[in-house]
Each structure stands twice: as structure tokens, then as C-alpha cells.
Amino acid sequence: MIHVKLSAKFQLVIPREIRQRFHLRTGQRVTFLVRGDVITLVPERRLSELKGIAAGIKPGVLREKMERDLRSATEGSNKRASPPPGPLPLNERERETGEACYFNS
Predict the structure, then answer these.
(1) Which candidate, 36, 21, 32, 2, places its Cα nearest to that of 105?
(2) In sequence order, which residues have a C-beta less than 8 Å from that of residue 8 and are 6 or more positions away?
């Protein structure tokens, strides 16, 4: 764990090993994400750096179709006349709160 001190001008110095590990550049913008009492810094990336990020994703397979297939497989021979349940939650937080969560906890 690395500790840094907030300056009198409310500035932080990102340690060299962090800058090198994440290839941070002078003047690069970062986004602050706040969740409860935790602040996360996320460096903004150039579009060229994101090339290939979706490699291997099959665009023909939709999440809704995968959910229907999963429901069909788990229901087996239990064919009911009731409407199918809603979409399957993505993570534990969605199961607990019922609201969408776009970042992992």
C-alpha cells in the first residue's frame, strides 16, 4: 500500500511506480469516481489505446437470448403458463437493491 500526502493546494503526487505501471502521461486527464467513502481515480485513455478492447465478443449473441436459454435450461420440463421472470441480475448488488450497477463493487 502506498501513501501520499495532500499538499496545502490540495494536490497529490502520483508515485513513480504507479505512473509507470499505468503509463500515465503529463497533462493526462483522470476521472474521480466516488462510491460511499471511497474515491477512485480512473485515467482517461485515448481512443487509439482502446483498439481491440472488444476482441472476441460475439455480436450475434444477445444478453436477452442468453437469459432465455438459461431460463429454459433451468426450468427443464416445468412449463408453466405464467409470464417469464424479469431479466437476470448482473451482480450481487443488483440482486439486493434491484437497481442497475455499472461498476463492480
Answers:
(1) 36
(2) none
